Amino acid sequence: MLLATTTEDFAPFTESHEERIRLLYEAGFRSIDLSLYDVIPGDPLFSDSFREAAESLADYADGLGMRFVQCHAPAVNCLRSEEDFSRALTLTARAIEICGILSIPTLVTHVGFHPSLDEEGWRAGNLRFYRALMPAAKENSVRVLAENSAHANLKGYYLYTGRACRRFADGMNDPNFGICWDTGHANMEGAQYDEILALGDALGAIHFHDNRGEKDEHLIPFLGTMSIDEVMHALIDVGFKGPFTFEATSSLRPPCYRMGDRRPYPGDTRMEKPTLAMQKAAERLLFITGEEILSAYGILEK
To answer: Which of 18, 55, 113, 129 gives a 20 to 30 Å CA spacing to 151?
Structure first.
């Protein structure tokens, strides 16, 4: 497997996609998961000249000997309102076009959710959304993937198990649609081996990270309670051939975090946030951890 991580690792420390890619390169990574999760005003990839910006980004990565292997779509919720549905379609379709330009084969998305919807209403709304995306997915040779979550994260999301993910993928019944399995979300739900096997050929990508079983902490593996061996055996047994993609984006916790803020201090706060030097060291540890895991199972691809 190719070892990859997300550009989101360095988002709090940088202003451009190029800077983030360079820092991944310095840590040892050669495969890139492009994060479009946060749509920042002024991001050239969401401007009128996005094609030129994407082509320039491709040239930059190629110059470093790096490749794009995966992408995360913008954070949207298509089931909040009709206006949000339209916005979600527009932003996700843009992400699909960017993937096409960068030759990225898979785009990870979050399904829409709303606490007031029962599973039938949730399913109908999301099928409507993803089916509307399929023409663009086919045109750009991109497989759009829906990601599992956990009850502790989101209510009314419904993709909490491998079996539920497989049922939803079967309902789509489209080769350009599949599932991204997030190991951290799954660790909050319980054992993963049978759930991953239930995905079968619907499994198109993974997000690999750890936590302590209660909150979505996005930690480097071995800092939490997830069984690395259980997940690795499941990925091998299900025949997964995609990139081994980390999403350990919060191993160094920011002061304000959705899982709980750092204790405030009213005085001097010069060390309120982790520094870039600290993140570089954490990123290097992440890379070494990935190489050790994949090498232990004889599946590290370079």
So the answer is: 129
Are residues 18 and 60 in contact, defined by beta-carbon separation less than 8 angstroms?
yes
Question: Distance of CA 32 to CAs 6, 65, 87, 149, 198, Å?
Answer: 6, 11, 26, 23, 27
E-strand stretches of the chain: 3-6, 31-35, 67-72, 106-109, 143-147, 177-182, 203-207, 244-246
- Over the chain (302 residues), the average pLDDT of each successive run of 10 is 98 96 98 96 96 98 98 97 97 98 98 94 98 98 98 95 98 98 98 98 98 96 98 98 97 87 93 96 98 98 92
Three-state secondary structure readout of 218-237: CECCCCCCCCHHHHHHHHHH
Helix then strand count (H, E) for the chain reads 9, 8
List all residues 6 or more positions away from 270 whose beta carbon is below 8 Å from its beta carbon: none
Bridge-based pairing state of the strands 244-246 and 203-207: unpaired
Tokens, residue 24: 């991944």
Task: Name the pTM for this structure.
Answer: 0.97
**Nearest CA among 1, 5, 29 for reference residue 247:** 5
Are β-strands 67-72 and 31-35 bridged in parallel, bridged antiparallel, or unpaired? parallel
| Helix, strand, or coil (residue 57) | helix
Task: Provide Rg for the chain, Cα atoms.
Answer: 19
| Contact yes or no for 106/95 (Cβ under 8 A) | no
